[in-house]
């Protein structure tokens, strides 16, 4: 049974805390007498004991003596707290003590010795009832304070003199008020003070709005017992929103952007209802106010509107948040246009959101420009990274369909008399992708029908604004096909080549609504046309460059690089298929005689005809390529070796059976074919080519048209030994350079040094270059050896600059080095590592380089770009040398020593040749070096003709670097030189 349910007349529990046992017994007896059998009394003589009993089981009332042995009654009250009713008992009638006890929590007091049973029972009952009422009142106050503290509005209870009797937490936070303090001065100066005064004078509730200079408040003043109650709400935000809406409404009428005001709800289906639109909205969308008011703004959305953007907008509406999106909308007539849409919620004076205000700005032009710029970047990136043409054309189609919503785009590329669909936008119906032309994805221009033919033929746009118009005529089936798919317009735009040479293709757009391009759309089509033309021409140029890189420009056959790619792949395919592969090298016999007698163009014509006959004689699976010069390479799969060799020999005889017509006359030619077999002989491409080369030379020596590599054939042991030693010559530093001076003809002072390769064999001694240079070229060692020669010659020339500033160095290059694509990088590295200025390096090449290496001219151009000087060596020994002088970036040439040797013989022929060569060279601004000068009469003859430079034993023999520095570069007169070493250069 709870305290509130227990009657005062029964079941009472009392605690007497008194150090006098007699007084405690008297009071206990009085209570039992007043409530016989219904009261339980406990007693304690010490305050601590009383507190322990109180805490263990709180009684209904405590009779507390003031004077206790261990504490006073006031101290007991402080320790006990408000646990139950307390009657303070004292032996003296001390009023001050009584007041202290009541303030400390006692409900009543009694004076010992004057208490009757009736009085005691009555006072205990009243004390218990008073305690219960005080406890309930405190609980109610706590609950009320909690409720008021949770209210966002400020709540004040003011006394008649305006002193705060109560403030909730909101009032404390917003106004800084506390109970018991005076009202702030600013509050007394506001209309709130007048409203409080009015209510205190007897008026009913007052409503007032006021500001503290920064914030605005809405206040309600109510009369209450003993004063007034004030409820205040901060309405600053609502006032700002109201003012913002008022300003917004004042500018919407004249705004250039479309403005729409709609009700706040519902934000879900069917959407807010429009209550206002301005004039710009009508001009932008075509909807008059009476056609849109009461309807949802969602009628502006259409099939191409971005669903993700719409979902973001609706999500923000549900959360009463602003939105800013770029969206595709549609006009009343169905024309799509892009808008930048900004939506904000608007609240009333209470803070309740009532409306949405949206501002729409037409950004169609900006979006199209952004899409076009992005397409340009994508096309440029795709082209630079080697992506397929179709990938870039897909970008064009996506650009058109995105910039012109409702239109599907296709790109057609012309090849001769046919135009092929190469790309289409994703929204083009699948059936149209297949049957767009009525005959698949190809238009035959020779049939002279259809809009694509008209666009290509007339190089003009062909626009069909409305496919349903009565005068529309398309080729068979096309009209029905387009209309069947709900299409209403057809725009066809040609792609004219930038040089005016013709039409590269067309852009074709089909639309789901009638109409011709407006001026902005027409301008967009022009820009997209230019971009597409640039793309097609760039891809065509890249295709041509790729063909030049992989195909021989003379015969149209694959070149060495492409042949090796075919060969590597063919070796793998043959191995998997269980086939065998023959690698062939064919060389024309006596081809140089054709060049020398009929001319270089005749030789080129012969090579083209041989290539055509060989290609016609081979099977489709066979590969034919031109290796360079008059050499052709073949890749021939086979299964039966005997049948294969007989068949290829027969086809080879057929190729050369009939004469070729060259320069208007019949020319009989023959070839020598060498074969290496895989996997019998090797599986390495380079090894197979080398073996085929050896088989071909063996066939030539034997006078046979064809030979097969024989791994067991007799090989010169000395050559084998020398080749083995040559492999270790470079790593073991057995190679060295000698230098022969080149002198200015007029003053006979040295201006350059030609680097000549020497091999100091540990057993054979100094090996003649004629014995190992050819061997190095055959086995490919000339490539690393040539790179070392370049580095060492540049290093030495750089070291001599301190002694002889401006002294240059000449280095011979082998034709085999020109086959390496990294030759310019090798030269650049040699210059960089040595620090030698590029103009102090002269590279000497022979005419065989120009004849045997297909891309020699490009390599010479790359070397020229490095800043080095280029000279043609052994000039006059080949038929076509003169034709190179004006086409190649040469700085000079060397007259072959044979002409100097023949001076004074054969009725002055050598003299006339030298004279003619010098005149020609000087006319072309080329300097002339005459080598082989051994006699003073020879030097004098050259100087008399105006020769530029002299080289020969008369002036200096080839010398090691230290001897060259001492004997040639020293200021002393030229010393007699005893080195009779052969001066053959690296070539």
Automatic annotation (TrEMBL):
The modification 4-aspartylphosphate is found at residue 65. Keywords: Kinase, Phosphoprotein, Transferase. The keyword Kinase applies. It comes from Deinococcus xianganensis. Residues 719-972 form the EAL domain. One of its GO terms (biological process) is phosphorelay signal transduction system. GO terms for molecular function: kinase activity. It comes from the Bacteria. Residues 13-127 form the Response regulatory domain. Residues 321-375 form the PAC domain. This is EAL domain-containing protein. Pfam families: EAL (PF00563), GAF_2 (PF13185), GGDEF (PF00990), PAS_9 (PF13426), Response_reg (PF00072). InterPro entries: Biofilm_reg_signaling, CheY-like_superfamily, EAL_dom, EAL_sf, GAF, GAF-like_dom_sf, GGDEF_dom, Nucleotide_cyclase. NCBIfam families: GGDEF, sensory_box. Residues 240-296 form the PAS domain. Residues 579-712 form the GGDEF domain.
């Amino acid at each position: 049974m709870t305290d509130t349910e227990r009657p005062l007349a029964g079941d009472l529990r009392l605690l007497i805390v008194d150090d006098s046992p007699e007084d405690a017994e008297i009071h206990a007896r009085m209570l039992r007498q007043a409530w016989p059998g219904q009261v339980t009394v406990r007693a304690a003589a010490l305050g601590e004991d009383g507190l322990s009993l109180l805490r263990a089981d709180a009684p209904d009332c405590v009779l507390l003596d003031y004077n206790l042995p261990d504490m006073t009654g006031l101290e007991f009250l402080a320790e006990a707290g408000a646990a139950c009713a307390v009657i303070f008992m004292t032996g003296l009638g001390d009023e001050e003590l009584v007041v202290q006890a009541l303030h400390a929590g006692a409900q009543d007091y009694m004076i010992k010795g004057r208490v009757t049973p009736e009085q005691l029972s009555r006072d205990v009952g009243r004390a218990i009832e008073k305690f219960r009422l005080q406890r309930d009142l405190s609980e109610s106050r706590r609950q009320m304070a909690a409720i008021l503290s949770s209210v966002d509005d400020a709540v004040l209870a003011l006394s008649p003199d305006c002193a705060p009797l109560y403030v909730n937490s909101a009032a404390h936070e917003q106004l800084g008020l506390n109970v018991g303090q005076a009202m702030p001065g600013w509050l007394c100066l506001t209309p709130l003070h007048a409203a409080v005064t009015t209510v205190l004078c007897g008026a009913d509730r007052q409503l007032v709005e006021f500001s503290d200079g920064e914030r605005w408040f809405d206040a309600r003043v109510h009369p209450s017992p003993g004063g007034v109650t004030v409820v205040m709400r901060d309405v600053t935000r609502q006032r700002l929103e109201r003012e913002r809406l008022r300003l917004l409404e004042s500018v919407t009428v004249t705004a250039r952007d479309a403005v729409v005001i709609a009700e706040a709800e519902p934000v879900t289906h069917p959407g807010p209802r429009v209550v206002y639109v301005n004039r710009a909205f009508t001009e932008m969308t075509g909807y008059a106010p009476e056609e849109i008011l009461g309807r949802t703004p969602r009628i502006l959305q259409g099939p191409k509107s971005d669903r993700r953007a719409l979902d973001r907008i609706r999500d923000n509406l549900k959360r009463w948040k602003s939105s800013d999106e770029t969206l595709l909308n549609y006009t009343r007539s169905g024309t799509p246009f892009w808008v930048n849409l900004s939506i904000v919620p608007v609240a009333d004076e209470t803070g309740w959101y009532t409306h949405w205000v949206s501002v729409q700005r037409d950004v169609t032009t900006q979006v199209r420009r952004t899409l076009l710029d992005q397409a340009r970047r994508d096309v440029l990136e795709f082209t630079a990274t080697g992506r397929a043409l179709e990938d870039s054309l897909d970008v064009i189609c996506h650009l058109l369909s995105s910039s012109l919503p409702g239109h599907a785009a296709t790109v057609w590329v012309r090849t001769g008399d046919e135009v092929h669909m190469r790309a289409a936008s994703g929204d083009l119906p699948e059936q149209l992708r297949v049957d767009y032309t009525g005959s698949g994805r190809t238009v035959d221009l020779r049939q002279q029908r259809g809009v694509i033919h008209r666009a290509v033929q007339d190089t003009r746009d062909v626009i069909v604004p409305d496919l349903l118009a009565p005068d529309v005529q398309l080729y068979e089936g096309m009209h029905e096909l387009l209309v069947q798919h709900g299409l209403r317009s057809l725009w066809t735009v040609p792609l004219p080549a930038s040089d005016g040479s013709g039409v590269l293709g067309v852009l074709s757009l089909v639309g789901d609504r009638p109409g011709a391009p407006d001026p902005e759309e027409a301008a967009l089509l022009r820009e997209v046309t230019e971009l597409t033309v640039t793309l097609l021409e760039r891809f065509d140029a890249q295709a041509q460059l790729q063909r030049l890189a992989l195909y021989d420009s003379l015969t149209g056959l694959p070149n060495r690089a492409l042949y090796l790619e075919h060969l590597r792949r063919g070796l793998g395919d043959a191995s998997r298929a269980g086939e065998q592969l023959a690698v062939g090298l064919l060389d024309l016999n006596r081809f140089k005689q054709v060049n020398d007698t009929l001319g270089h163009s005749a030789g080129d014509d012969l090579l083209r005809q041989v290539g055509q006959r060989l290609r016609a004689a081979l099977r489709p699976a066979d590969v034919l390529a031109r290796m360079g010069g008059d050499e052709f390479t073949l890749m021939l799969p086979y299964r039966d070796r005997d049948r294969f060799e007989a068949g290829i020999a027969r086809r080879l005889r057929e190729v050369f059976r009939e004469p070729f017509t060259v320069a208007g006359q019949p020319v009989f030619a023959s070839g020598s074919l060498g074969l290496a077999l895989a996997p019998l002989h090797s599986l390495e491409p380079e090894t197979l080519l080398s073996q085929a080369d050896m088989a071909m030379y063996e066939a030539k020596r034997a006078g046979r048209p064809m030979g097969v590599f024989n791994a067991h054939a007799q090989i010169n042991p000395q050559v084998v030994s020398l080749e083995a030693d040559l492999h270790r010559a470079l790593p073991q530093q057995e190679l060295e350079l000698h230098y022969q001076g080149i002198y200015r003809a007029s003053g006979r002072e040295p201006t350059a040094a030609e680097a000549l390769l020497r091999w100091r064999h540990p057993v054979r001694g100094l090996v003649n270059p004629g014995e190992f240079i050819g061997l190095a070229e055959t086995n490919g060692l000339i490539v690393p050896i040539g790179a070392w020669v370049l580095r060492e010659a540049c290093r030495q020339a750089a070291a001599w600059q301190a002694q002889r500033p401006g002294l240059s160095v000449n280095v011979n290059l082998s034709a085999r080095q020109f086959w390496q694509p990294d030759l310019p990088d090798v030269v650049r590295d040699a210059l960089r590592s040595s620090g030698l200025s590029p103009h102090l390096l002269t590279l000497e090449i022979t005419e065989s380089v120009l004849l045997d290496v297909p891309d020699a001219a490009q390599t010479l151009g790359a070397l020229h770009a490095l800043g080095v000087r280029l000279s043609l060596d052994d000039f006059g020994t080949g038929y076509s040398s003169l034709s190179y002088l004006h086409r190649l970036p040469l700085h000079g040439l060397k007259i072959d020593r044979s002409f100097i040797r023949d001076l004074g013989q054969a009725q002055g022929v050598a003299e006339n040749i030298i004279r003619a060569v010098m005149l020609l060279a000087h006319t072309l601004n080329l300097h002339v070096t005459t080598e082989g000068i051994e006699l003073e009469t020879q030097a004098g003859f050259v100087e008399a003709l105006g020769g530029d430079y002299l080289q020969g034993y008369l002036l200096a023999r080839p010398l090691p670097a230290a001897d060259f520095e001492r004997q040639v570069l020293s200021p002393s007169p030229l010393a007699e030189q005893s080195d009779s070493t052969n001066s053959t250069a690296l070539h």
